Amino acid sequence: MAKNIILFSIIALSFCCFAYAFEPSPLQDFCVADATSSARVNGVACKNPMSVSANDFSFSGLHLPGNTSNAVGSRVTPVTVVQLPGLNTLGISMVRIDYAPTGINPPHTHPRATEILTVVDGSLEVGFVTSNPDNKHITKVLQKGDVFVFPVGLVHFQRNVGKGNALAIAALSSQNPGVITIANAVFGSKPDIASDILAKAFQVDKSIVDQLQTKF
Ligand SMILES: *[C@@H]1O[C@H](CO)[C@@H](O)[C@H](O)[C@H]1NC(C)=O
Description:
Layout: H1 2-16, E1 74-79, E2 93-99, E3 104-109, E4 115-121, E5 123-129, E6 137-143, E7 147-150, E8 155-160, E9 166-172, E10 180-181, H2 182-187, H3 195-202, H4 206-215
Antiparallel strand pairs: 1-2, 2-9, 3-8, 3-10, 4-7, 4-9, 5-6, 5-8
Helix pairs in contact: 3-4
The structure holds 2-acetamido-2-deoxy-beta-D-glucopyranose.
2-acetamido-2-deoxy-beta-D-glucopyranose (NAG) binds at residues 67, 69.
């Protein structure tokens, strides 16, 4: 009946506006994270606004190169709500990424953020892969000053393809973007995912999975 369709439409419309894909808007000027609070909320509880200071909205040290002496040859220095309490409820954060020559930032995803990255120094091959069933690899080589965006949730990576070190700065659309590094999550979970599951998923011999699991 037409009346039912109208009623259904009104109900559907009223639900539309509660389905947020991104972080909710703040309900006050700011909500500086109170790391000492034991309150369980979505985000972190607010400090008393009367007791906040400029330092709550500030972070120092992003001029310092990260230590890239590790297996992948890169280092991410995060500035999220953990390092900068004033980011709480604001839906934004940033990172510095240093790359040694041939270094990579291995395939990973941010479950809660889109990332926009600019190359400050050097040259980076970057890419992301679209979801099933296409799994299209969108990739490009960036030079100093170039900007690239990694859409929320998609697996992405960077590789230093220049002669020297490379440096990037990126902004992310969450106070707490989260990182899932594919190799670590799949082969380094605690406890392990059963190796016969991974052998079937990756279509390889179980001994290859065992070897990968010892590395992560
Ligand atoms: C960088 O990390 C490596 C490996 O953990 C360590 O041996 C080295 O001392 C670090 N270098 C600096 C300058 O901290």
